């Protein structure tokens, strides 16, 4: 399935939330649900743990050294249940992002291509 196929499928399904305002609010709500699913994996299930601390961004380190040194602050890995919940919530978020793009006549294929080019051009500096 391509992004274009998915956008067409979403367009066919979206009856209840056709208004831009509805789609905007559902899009934000779905992002909050993704964060909530991650939080629950930490605080209720416990399959992953968060051990956050200050990152060491010393300027004398090269990019490869920094990649090794910088920590994602996660211990453990998602259990099957939490992974399923998170995939479900990411899918909903993707659904509403597609609906938003549909309403504003934006092709997600174009968005993906543009972002990929930006990543290729800016490299590691894209995410600072
Ligand atoms: Zn879990």
Compact summary:
With 128 residues, the protein is mainly α.
Structural notes for this entry:
- This protein is mainly alpha-helical and 128 residues long.
- The protein has one domain: Helix Hairpins.
- 65% of the residues lie in helices and 5% in strands.
- The protein has five helices and two strands.
- Helix 1 packs across helix 4 and helix 2 (20-45) runs antiparallel to helix 4 (80-103).
- The protein is globular and about 50 Å long.
- The two termini are 32 Å apart.
- The model has no long low-confidence stretch (mean pLDDT 89).
- It binds zinc ion (ZN).
- Residues 41, 45, 47, 78-79, 81-82 line the site of zinc ion (ZN).
- Residues 41, 45, 47, 78-79, 81-82 line the site of zinc ion.
Key structural traits:
binds zinc ion; 2 strands; globular; mainly alpha; about 130 residues; two-stranded antiparallel ribbon; Helix Hairpins; 5 helices
Strands of the widest sheet, in order across it, are 1-2
CATH T-level topology: Helix Hairpins
Secondary structure category: mainly alpha
**Fraction of residues in β-strands:** under 5%
> How is the biggest beta sheet arranged?
2 strands, antiparallel
Instruction: Please provide the ordered H/E string of secondary-structure elements.
Output: HHEHEHH
Broad CATH class: Mainly Alpha
Low-pLDDT segments = none
Shape: globular
In the CATH hierarchy, the architecture is Orthogonal Bundle
What secondary-structure arrangement, pairings included, does this model have?
Blueprint: H1 3-13, H2 20-45, E1 48-50, H3 63-69, E2 74-76, H4 80-103, H5 108-122
Antiparallel strand pairs: 1-2
The structure holds zinc ion.
């Amino acid at each position: 399935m391509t992004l274009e196929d998915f956008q067409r499928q979403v367009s066919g399904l979206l009856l209840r939330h056709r208004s831009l305002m509805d789609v905007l609010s559902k899009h934000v709500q779905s992002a909050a649900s993704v964060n909530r699913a991650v939080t629950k994996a930490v605080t209720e299930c416990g399959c992953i743990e968060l051990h956050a601390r200050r990152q060491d961004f010393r300027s004398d380190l090269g990019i490869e050294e920094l990649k090794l040194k910088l920590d994602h602050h996660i211990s453990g890995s998602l259990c099957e249940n939490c992974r399923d919940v998170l995939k479900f919530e990411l899918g909903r978020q993707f659904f509403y992002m597609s609906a938003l793009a549909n309403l504003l006549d934006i092709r997600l294929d174009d968005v993906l291509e543009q972002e990929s080019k930006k990543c290729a051009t800016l490299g590691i500096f894209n995410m600072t």
